[in-house]
TrEMBL record:
PANTHER family: CYTOCHROME P450 26, LANOSTEROL 14-ALPHA DEMETHYLASE. SUPFAM superfamilies: Cytochrome P450. It comes from Actinophytocola gossypii. It holds the Pfam family p450. This is Cytochrome P450.
Amino acid sequence: MSTAVRAPYALDRNPLDEWLFRKEWPLRDLATPPAGSGLRPVPGDAGLPVLGHSLEMLRLGLDYAMRRYRTIGPVSWARAFGVRVVSASGPEATQVVLANRDKAYSQQGWEYFIGPFFNRGLMLLDFDEHLYHRRLMQLAFTADRLSGYMGRVGEVVRSGVDTWRPGDRFPVYRALKQLTLDVATTIFMASSMGADSDRLTRAFVDTVRAGTALVRLPVGRWGAGLRGRRMLEDYFRGALPAKRASDSDDLFAALCHARTDDGETFSDEDVVNHMIFLMMAAHDTSTIATSALVYYLGKHPEWQDRARAESLALGDEPLTVESLAALPTLDLVLKESMRLVAPVPWMVRKTVRDTDLLGHHVPAGVIVVTLAWLNHMLPEHWSNPFEFDPDRFDEDRREDKSHRFAYMPFGGGVHKCIGMHFGTYEVKTLAHELLRRFEWTVPDGYEVRWDPTALPLPKDGLPISLRRR
Ligand code: HEM
């Protein structure tokens, strides 16, 4: 059974938004294709003077991307945030970009938005250098290590949710954000940030949100991001010598001690840069995925009951990688929640050479985005895409198999999320412990609004009515 919902990123529009949404600008070519190439130019437009289409992207999010996809096509360009951005929308265009067969697309696209804040994180490295770092980092994500981390995730979550004070308007997003930060500091560093916790949480939030600042000067949102980055560097640098000397089994230590058979290792700077990126990559995405899951379970009590029955049947033992298999309903609901609210809604690249994107000529030096949230909502690939319908992932339907890039919450290609298994375990463990202890609802007719400015953020903190069972 499924229940109708409206598009998850549909925000209320004021008259200016409505005008921007409807406005059709004359189309222009991004660049002239080389003579004799047989390629077509990329069509698009620059939008408003100075601002380009930044306002539409920030305020209308998915609605706007979908409109351009429908009116211009899977490959189009727009000016936004001071640059020309090519949108590679729909699974076919996404596949060309993420599979990156001719190595035309580099991670420098991310560099433009978040480079100053997540300098030399794994996601910002390219080609051979990326491969080198990814192979080393993989040593911190082996099956044995994941099993070890899992045990501790359960402990942190249990003691964290025991401190929750249920109520009618419980701000669950903030509570989950604290919990996933506690998980990250325990698993990643075998420590608690203690008195530094608030300061560092703020630093993470600032660094993530800075990427879509309209003014790229050391003031306002951009400036807060730069200060956040400095604070995080100082924190990890200070903790590094003790970690190098320790034999603890957390992720920080795993990076310090990672050594391939060829003797390759990470430098101190590498470890600091990777830790800052990993904390961000793990923390925000897991918070969003869990928040979306809690929201949909609150809205669909029949699914909550079904998931709870499976969790209760497992008894009091902490979850393990093996016992997760006994929670099939949670698996379906999580997949559907990440389809409706992709924690990383768009992925960014930059062309390092001229290339052919579905028969269009894209010149070197252009930012290209792929849009998970759009691919997840196309009726060509999903039945009633705006509806919450976890059974679409069931073995006898598997709508996600309609195309390799129809469903991509963890991306694809060589930069596919390295923490996919860890992140999935973490979110399921969180949900499992919540289901065992609490029941929750959202008011009739309530629909959370996801702010699409950076990674999706519930505008009102997602208040739920939470009761102990
Ligand atoms: C529900 C949770 C998560 C989601 C939805 C998610 C999503 C993603 C996506 C979409 C990408 C690809 C970005 C791109 O291609 O440009 C990515 C990359 C990455 N993620 Fe995750 N992630 C999650 C959890 C985690 C966790 C828990 C960790 C670490 C423990 C992590 C670490 C990374 C890293 C290091 C990369 C870069 C990989 C590379 O460039 O080779 N993520 N993630």
